[in-house]
Design a protein that fits this description.
Pfam families (chain B): AAA_5 (PF07728)
Strand order of the largest sheet of chain B: 4-7-10-3-11
InterPro entries (chain B): ATPase_dyneun-rel_AAA, CbbQ/NirQ/NorQ/GpvN, P-loop_NTPase
Shape of chain B: globular
Protein name (chain A): DUF5682 family protein
Helix content of chain B: 40-55%
Mean pLDDT of chain A: 78
CATH class of the largest domain in chain B: Alpha Beta
Number of strands of chain A: 20
Helix content of chain A: 40-55%
Structural class of chain B: alpha/beta
Oligomer: heterodimer
InterPro entries (chain A): DUF5682 (IPR043737), LolB (IPR050458), Uncharacterised_CoxE (IPR008912), vWFA_dom_sf (IPR036465)
Number of helices of chain B: 17
Strand order of the largest sheet of chain A: 17-16-15-18-19-20
Number of strands of chain B: 11
Largest sheet of chain B: 5 strands, parallel
Protein name (chain B): AAA family ATPase
């Protein structure tokens, strides 16, 4: 093989070692023709590719499927050979299969490959394969397990070797790989076909000039197939026969475009890349001289250390020196003449990363990537013909009859991509121009029918001069619209990765874009991301959005990829779904109705997959330990899933009516009804016990419960309530028929007697003034058909309508079910209403109704609450405070007394419980336990009884019991930084944080800071002792960036080991998770005591993102839902 | 991770009472002697073997090695296979050896149960012939244990003198030019850890109580330090930057290959049963289920690529061994009892439910996901495991 004719140079597409020796090899052989593994259509580009003024990296691309893409850098042997041939005027003959030839479609048992040229190098070995020869070769070498055989055998030993030695090593690797492939029967049909073509070209050359000196530059894997004679090619018996008549060479578009280092790196996702282009280029520049390779390693070590320093971590010349020492010694131990890529990467990791994957490790990895990848851009020689994206896009637009440079006029396009194939191509093309950032077409919204997404699309397209200009920019990333859009989207993905990882939202957007642009490969990658990122970081709404998108893909309603089955779609769906189930735990503390709806949406999907034990256990916890809302929702969901029976739920719900805490009752009922509303409408087991309980309640008890129950039922839409009322009325009518067993005359007398007795009781004030029939009770509860109410009952209805109004959703327009609520005269002002409430329900209920109205946004109601009689509750405080944000200063002043009263009550109450947890500190003391320095005085005093004179007269003490000093701990100067998330609504946690901070600020040895953050951070440290003004100044809303908050907290840290940082948040981080974890890591690394509070309130139940929280725990921040007392205990433990 | 070789053939006589565990320098004395004769290339000062031979000692030789011509020695066989002692990446061992050869501190970090301590024992036994100069780091470790202490009786009676000074293992290693080991260095208080800084940078320990030549102990050539640290319990976070800078960090990962891990679990569990003279009768397929479950929960994803939620507990190989041994003991002592497999879910729950109650829920999730899917795919054993799910509830 080595001595074969034609002269063989086996290469890998990127190989610094071979690139360095090829000019010498060619100089020595002096070929008359250079045959090179490239499709013949590229022949016209050869003079430009080898042009002395063309600066690598550049790329050759053609059209076809799979998309042929051949990037070239200074370390590509082909480029070096082409340059040599151009400089020496030697003919270059591309000898591979023509692009678009049928042969490319011949698949063997080897899987499809991404790129034609990548197989010049050895494929990545799979673990299960029986690779005898490569194993034998590998065993003779040493290095990391994952290392490439080529790297170990060809690249690493190359410095200092002769050109011929390098050529032989490369041929040997190619032969070994081929032998293994042949043994396993895995040489692909396409490879055999290509080799037949190469042999044909060689034969053709030889037939024209029999004695020509021909050099053949092909992938090392193919080299053995190009040698005549048995015994050389291990796959010899499989050789494809030459075609009888050569197929005509199809006409395809080809382009030569400039390229860039970051795209060349194999991690960029571009085809035919190589790890760390900068290092490879340095090796070529060293030209095989071990000393120069070593000095390149020194340069890189110093630059990486500088990069790490820039990242804020110490790394100086000392570290750089150690990196170099380790690099060289590793090379020496492995018997290499000069360090290879593997050695330098290992040494950098060992010395600099310090075993921390998140904090310092990330910085080191970023610095390494920046230094080793490089930033060079290629340039074409002046005069190179125009090619690439521009011409191909124009042709495409003309073909699709879309606005183009010849007909630039604006067009409105209504497309139906799922029916018409042409529309589908247009849709995909328009999506792609959007993805490329070419200003050309704008989508308009189309309303879907009902809840379903629209199936047609509407676009406004126009060709403008800026379309042309932006096309040139997008052209860097690809030569066809498909390539360029994939390039842009992949770059986007890369950028997300560099910024610390994609967020769940970015992943979903990316998946949608990839699918819309008809890029199945990228969509599959994004699907991988989905499976990776969503379970780890997404919140429940994001997971549900993800499930929606995935089911759209599954149902083939995304035009771009309709018809392409994405691999593993079902598995990913299941994974995302499982992740959503995990989030159920995080809902326990929620009081947001949207979360109850999300829970319902989740279990509706769950039906398809069956109930798992995990969901069962989670729901059980939710139903017994959650917030009132989630208890109701959880119980109802269990019934929907068939985990509990309906009658049991009905009984439990009926028992809730006996709760004397109106807010809790209302919340539980809301939760129940959000989930099980339709179940109730249908009547049956659930509703019977409720019916019975509501009807049998004494009137005054019913009236006390009424506001809360009405509040609970308010979650249903008016139409749903109307239907429910109809169902109830039907049942009531039914029942009347059943009890007619007594004599009607007797019944009549009983009724008369009852009426008399009731009258008598009323006169003495012993019974409530109204008698409410069951149907009327339900009308009041449901706020429906109140026109049928009589007298007093009607006033109750009106008083509550003032609070609840008409309701939202279906039927709220008032056109259903006739006149409903709110048709009576409403109150002229809150004063009249408030008086009416007192008269009808009593003072307690009045406060409660007014508080509920304040929570609903009625300022006047809040102003009507009497500070003196108001019960101090956090709920009241949060609702009043959320009003205060939007009010003029004058009105806030009037609210102040109420807030002040509630805050001071709560603060007093809390400080009573917290203070004991924060006192009692220890000091140093003597001990018998050896631990600290010896206390000589005490030791002598304790052992005086052993004192005696030695024979020489000196006194001596035998220390039977030595006494030591314990280390005294410094207990002063602790600093606690409360970092409070105010991005959502004004929540109980915020209130508790402020109050807790106020109590903590009263502890003398503690400096308390309070930072409120959303995407900005505001320092409230100045007013921390005055929770009233603090709470009135906090403005809620905005996104969540916990990382920003932590960064601000880090600036306050002076003595890390005596600083506590407590983050109060729901951990639904808006940005990517990487920076957040890095910030946590930085704090933890510095020795700061950090704690995450998923919720800070009395219940200790919280609503938070389970996935993010568990990642934070991994980064070293424990996360728990705490009560203020537990927090104070934690603080006490740290300080003590 | 260890291979038992007899001590009968050792050149050194071990005339001691039977021990539960032999230190590696005794256990592998014959191999060490062979390697010393096998490779007589250049050695760093104070080393008993060449760096290349140290690597061979730790990762083993696949084939028998033969002594080169003219280097035969009495009592050393001509050919010998070096057993594999550390199952892991060769490059990692190479980096460790090169670090030590440069007399720099080596810090092995990793999850518990990844054989960090064993690797450090093997390295020190091979480099200097003893693995005994060790300090175990705990919260109660004092500076005395890293630097020097005093014989208080002598100190009180005669005042400070060299004879009243009690050297620490680290100090002993310094004067002998040997390898000192500090286990679990991160569990020491930070101020105690920092006493290593001056040892690693100045290479001497000052004894201010003494004067003249005794006032400092200098490190002889060959002295170096191997520390291990557990990523889970304290991490390296509290180490000072000054100390970190003086170490090269090597992360030891769990065993990558399932077959190797299963074999290891079987070997070690059998060894445990061997000690009580009972045969290890647990079926290989049960062990495979066990090891697979451990690996899935440890990696956060299954072999099939399914996502698994990781419990906060460490699912170390060592822990898998103890479960396998427990299964073996159950089979040995209660032979008529139930199927061994039926005990597995209970044991797994016991391993997982250590500090976070949510971990039990994660195990349920594992059963819902990976176990169910495998059962659906038709693995008979996995179907049995899936049917055992009721043992996890409650």
């Amino acid at each position: 093989m080595v001595a074969a004719r034609p002269y063989l140079i086996g290469v890998r597409h990127h190989s610094p070692a071979l690139s360095a020796v090829i000019p010498a090899l060619l100089d020595e052989f002096r070929p008359q023709a250079l045959l090179i593994e490239m499709p013949p259509q590229f022949a016209r580009w050869m003079p430009w590719l080898g042009h002395p003024r063309t600066v690598a990296p550049v790329a050759l691309a053609g059209s076809g499927e799979p998309l042929p893409f051949y990037p070239f850098a200074d370390f590509s042997p082909e480029l070096v050979a082409v340059r040599w041939a151009v400089a020496h005027g030697v003919e270059i003959v591309p000898c591979d299969l023509p692009l678009a030839d049928a042969g490319w479609g011949e698949r063997g048992s080897r899987g499809p490959r991404k790129n034609a040229m990548a197989d010049g190098g050895p494929p990545v070995p799979e673990p299960a394969r029986e690779d005898l020869f490569s194993r034998a070769l590998r065993r003779s070498q040493t290095g990391r397990d994952g290392d490439d055989l080529w790297d170990r055998v060809v690249e690493a030993p190359a410095p200092g070797a002769t050109p011929e030695q390098v050529r032989r090593a490369a041929l040997a690797v190619g032969w070994a790989m081929r032998a293994d492939e042949a043994r396993n029967g895995r040489v692909a049909g396409v490879d055999l076909r290509r080799e037949a073509q190469m042999r044909a070209v060689v034969a053709d050359q030889l037939s024209r000039t029999p004695d020509a000196r021909i050099a053949l530059l092909v992938g090392a894997f193919h080299a053995p197939a190009l040698v005549d004679g048995d015994g050389v090619d291990p796959a010899g018996r499989k050789r494809a026969a030459p075609l009888d008549a050569p197929r005509p060479v199809p006409d395809v578009t080809t382009s030569l475009i400039p390229y860039a280092d970051p795209l060349l790196d194999s991690r960029s996702g571009y085809p035919a890349g190589i790890r760390d282009p900068r290092w490879q280029a340095e090796t070529v520049r060293a030209g095989g001289d071990p000393a120069r390779v070593s000095s390149a390693a020194v340069r890189i070590a110093v630059e990486v250390c500088a990069g790490v320093r820039e990242g804020g971590h110490p790394a100086g010349p000392g570290e750089a020196r150690e990196v170099v020492r380790l690099t060289e010694d590793l090379a020496r131990l492995r018997g290499l003449p000069a360090p290879g890529r593997s050695e330098i990467v290992e040494a950098l990791t060992s010395v600099l990363a310090q075993g921390e994957m998140l904090g310092r490790g990330r910085v080191v990895a970023q610095a390494m990537e920046k230094v080793l990848v490089g930033e060079r851009r290629g340039r074409l020689a002046p005069g190179t013909p125009r090619s690439g994206l521009g011409p191909s896009l124009e042709a495409l637009l003309k073909e699709l009859k879309l606005p183009n440079p010849d007909q630039p006029q604006r067009k409105e396009l209504r497309l139906d991509p799922l029916r018409s194939p042409l529309d589908r191509r247009r849709e995909v093309a328009l999506q792609r121009t959007q993805a490329c950032g070419i200003y050309y077409a704008l989508p308009a919204d189309v309303q879907g029918v009902g809840a379903a997404a629209a199936l047609t699309t509407l676009w406004l397209a126009e060709w403008t001069p800026s379309s042309a200009a932006l096309t040139e920019i997008a052209g860097l990333l690809g030569v066809t619209l498909e390539q360029a859009s994939e390039g842009t989207l992949r770059r986007q993905r890369e950028r997300e990765r560099a910024d610390g990882g994609s967020t769940a939202q970015q992943v979903l957007d990316g998946l949608l874009a990839a699918a819309g642009c008809g890029l199945p490969g990228l969509a599959a990658d994004r699907l991988d991301d989905t499976a990776r990122v969503l379970p780890a970081t997404a919140t429940l709404p994001e997971l549900l959005a993800g499930l929606d998108l995935l089911s759209r893909l599954e149902q083939n309603t995304v035009p771009g990829v309709a018809g392409h089955a994405l691999p593993d779609l079902a598995v990913v769906m299941e994974e995302v779904h499982t992740a959503a189930i995990r989030q159920v735990d995080g809902l326990a503390g929620s009081s947001d109705r949207a979360d109850a709806r999300a829970l319902l949406a989740l279990v509706v999907r769950h039906d398809r997959l069956g109930t798992g034990m995990r969901l069962d256990a989670a729901l059980k916890r939710l139903a017994t330990e959650g917030s009132p809302l989630m208890r109701g929702a959880g119980s109802a969901v269990r019934v929907l899933l068939g985990l509990d029976d309906a009658a049991g739920l009905g009984d439990r719900a009926a028992a809730w009516l006996d709760l004397d805490t109106p807010l809790e009752l209302a919340a539980r009922l809301s939760g129940l009804l959000i989930v099980a509303g339709p179940l109730l409408e249908a009547g049956g087991d659930v509703i019977d016990p409720l019916l019975a309980r509501l009807e049998l309640m004494p009137d005054d008890l019913f009236l006390r419960r009424l506001p809360a129950v009405r509040g609970g039922f308010d979650v249903l839409t008016p139409a749903a309530r109307a239907r429910l009322l109809a169902a109830v009325e039907a049942r009531l009518d039914d029942r009347l028929d059943l009890v007619m067993t007594t004599d009607p005359v007797l019944l009549g007398r009983w009724a008369q007697a009852d009426a008399h007795a009731l009258e008598a009781l009323r006169e003495r004030g012993l019974a409530s003034a109204v008698a409410l029939a069951p149907a009327d009770r339900w009308r009041l509860v449901l706020g429906q058909k109140q026109d049928q109410l009589q007298g007093q009952a009607k006033r109750y209805g009106q008083a509550l309508d003032e609070l609840y109004g008409q309701g939202r959703g279906e039927g709220s327009g008032g056109d259903l079910g006739g006149p409903g609520a709110g048709d009576g005269p409403s109150y002229p002002g809150v004063r009249e209403w408030s008086e009416d409430l007192t008269q009808l329900f009593g003072a307690t209920v009045r406060e409660e109704v007014l508080a509920a109205a304040a929570a609903g946004g009625r300022v006047d109601a809040a102003l009507a609450i009497d500070p003196a009689s108001a019960r101090p509750s956090v709920e009241l405080l949060t609702s009043v405070l959320s009003l205060a944000g939007a009010l003029p200063e004058r009105t806030v002043a009037r609210l102040r007394p109420l807030v002040a009263k509630v805050v001071s009550d709560l603060t007093q109450e809390l400080s009573r419980t917290l203070t004991p947890a924060l006192t009692g500190l220890t000091s140093s003391r003597p001990t018998r336990r050896p631990g600290g320095p010896i206390d000589l005085h005490r030791t002598i005093r304790a052992n005086l009884k052993t004192a005696r004179y030695l024979p020489d007269g000196t006194p001596t003490v035998i220390p039977e019991h030595p006494v030591f000093r314990t280390r005294s701990k410094r207990t002063t100067d602790w600093r606690i930084i409360l970092l409070v998330d105010v991005s959502g609504s004004m929540e109980a946690s915020t209130v508790w944080s402020a109050i807790t901070a106020a109590v903590l600020s009263g502890v003398p040895s503690l400096t308390t800071h309070l930072l409120a953050f959303s995407t900005d951070v505001i320092d409230f440290t100045g007013v921390v002792s005055d929770p009233l003004s603090l709470l009135l100044e906090v403005s809620v809303g905005g996104g969540t960036s916990i990382a920003t908050g932590l960064a601000a907290a880090r600036e306050l840290v002076t003595v890390p080991s005596r600083t506590m940082v407590v983050v109060v948040s729901d951990f639904e981080e808006g940005g990517s998770i990487g920076p957040l974890l890095a910030q946590v890591r930085l704090l933890v690394d510095a020795g700061v005591h950090v704690l995450g509070c998923a919720g800070l309130d009395e219940t200790g139940a919280a609503r938070y993102s389970v996935s993010v929280a568990s990642q934070l725990v991994g980064a070293g921040m424990p996360v728990a839902a705490l009560s203020p007392l537990e927090l104070a205990r934690w603080v006490g433990e740290q300080v003590r | 991770m260890t291979e038992t070789t007899g001590t009968a053939a050792t050149g050194r006589t071990v005339a001691t009472a039977p021990r539960q565990v032999d230190p590696p320098e005794d256990r592998y004395a014959a191999e060490l002697e062979f390697l010393a004769a096998f490779d007589d290339g250049a050695r760093p000062p104070g080393w008993k073997l060449t760096p290349r031979a140290v690597v061979t000692f730790v990762v083993g030789s696949e084939r028998p090695l033969s002594l080169p011509q003219g280097r035969e020695r009495e009592g050393v066989p001509q050919r010998r296979t070096i057993s594999e002692k550390f199952v892991g990446e060769r490059a990692l061992v190479e980096r460790c050896v090169v670090t030590l050869a440069g007399e720099r501190g080596l810090l092995l970090v990793g999850e518990p149960g990844t054989a960090k301590s064993m690797l450090s024992e093997l390295l020190s036994a091979a480099v200097c012939g003893t693995s005994g100069l060790v300090v175990q780091g705990t919260a109660g470790t004092t500076e005395d244990q890293l630097r020097y202490g005093w014989n208080y009786a002598a100190l009180l009676a005669q005042g400070p003198s060299r004879s009243a000074l009690v050297p620490s293992p680290v100090m002993s290693a310094m004067s002998a030019g040997a390898v000192a080991r500090v286990e679990e260095v991160t569990r020491c208080l930070p101020e105690v850890q920092d006493s290593l800084v001056s040892i690693l940078s100045d290479r001497r320990i000052a004894v201010p109580e003494l004067s003249g030549a005794d006032s400092a102990v200098h490190a002889a050539p060959g002295f170096c330090l191997i520390a291990t640290a557990n990523l889970r319990d304290r991490g390296v976070s509290e180490m000072s930057a000054a100390l970190k800078r003086r170490f090269n960090f090597e992360q030891v990962h769990p065993i990558a290959d399932i077959a190797m891990e299963t074999a290891l679990v079987r070997r070690q569990a059998a060894a445990v049963l061997d000690r009580v003279q009972a045969p290890f009768t647990v079926d290989d397929s049960v062990l495979e289920v066990l090891v697979t479950a451990f690996r899935d929960l440890r990696n956060g994803s299954t072999v099939e690529g399914w996502e698994v939620e990781r419990p906060s507990t460490v699912m170390s190989t060592a822990e898998a061994v103890s479960v396998a041994a427990a299964l073996g003991l159950a089979a040995a002592y209660f032979p008529s009892g139930r199927d061994v497999l039926s005990l597995l879910p209970g044991h797994l729950l016991g391993v997982v439910r250590k500090d976070d109650p949510a971990d039990a829920a994660r195990l349920l999730g594992y059963w819902d996901g990976a176990v169910r899917r495998r059962a659906e795919r038709g693995g008979r054993l996995w179907r049995q495991v899936w049917e055992l799910r009721d043992r996890l509830e409650g």
